[in-house]
Amino acid sequence: MCLCCGSFGKGPEGQLIVCSQCGQCFHPYCVGVKVNKMILSKGWRCLDCTLCEGCGKGSDEARLLLCDSCDISYHTYCLDPPLEKVPPGGWKCKWCVSCDDCGATSAGTQCEWQSNYTQCGPCASKTSCPVCNIKYNLNDLMIQCLHCDRWLHGSCDGLMTEEEVDRAADYGYQCLYCRPKTKCSLGALSGMSCSSSASSAGAASFSLFSSSASNPLADNILLTESGIKQMSRLKISPASRRRAKVKNKIK
């Protein structure tokens, strides 16, 4: 029997859901819940038994979010990543969330949910740069990562001209978050330096990149024309060896 209306109901209206905490039964329409896969797999708690799934506490109700789809609850600071404040509209947990723009149920490769779990990473990057978090202007140079599909300012990755952006895109651009970590930035800025060590002590010099014009790479990072000129000057000379002094013979 439903605890709210006190009736059993007939047919589809007679279906009841049980609180996994207190065991009380309710009609889904009496508690404003639509039974979905999440509720069937993880269970459901009534409002009297609601608690944070992260810390297991029901205190600090002002910061306790209730999923619009499955009624699961989390404190804003118990989420991963945490929310700075309670979202003004609705909120959905990570199992029920989807992007409002494209309908994706995943935040994207190497991405996190944006705009209070309402936008995936690629969709959010169409309006603001994920590196500097500044909204794009009309004449900004932008480039899209081939791996995670996010857009960003070319200047945030050292690409200062349209030619550099086009060249990086032609070689299959990967953003700062997707490519291997390196001490060298993608765009070759004046005065930049890259540290490296020689593979052997007797090597006369060590080249950081392939000098071929068709493959201007340094540690698998695409170089611009100015970067090639800059890095061609970087050479590591072998350590000089001291000559052994000849000892004078004692007469």
UniProtKB/TrEMBL annotation:
Question: Which terms in the Gene Ontology molecular function aspect does this entry carry?
Answer: zinc ion binding
* Annotated ranges, domain PHD-type: 1-52, 49-99, 126-181
Where does the UniProt annotation locate this protein? Nucleus
Q: Which InterPro entries match?
A: Zinc_finger_PHD-type_CS (IPR019786), Znf_FYVE_PHD (IPR011011), Znf_PHD (IPR001965), Znf_PHD-finger (IPR019787), Znf_RING/FYVE/PHD (IPR013083)
* PANTHER family documented for this protein: HL01030P-RELATED
Pfam families associated with the record = PHD (PF00628)
Please identify the protein, giving its name as recorded.
PHD-type domain-containing protein
Q: Keywords in UniProt for this one?
A: Metal-binding, Nucleus, Repeat, Transcription, Transcription regulation, Zinc, Zinc-finger
Write down the species.
Nematostella vectensis (Starlet sea anemone)
Got a GO cellular component term for this one?
A: nucleus
Q: Which domain of life is it from?
A: Eukaryota
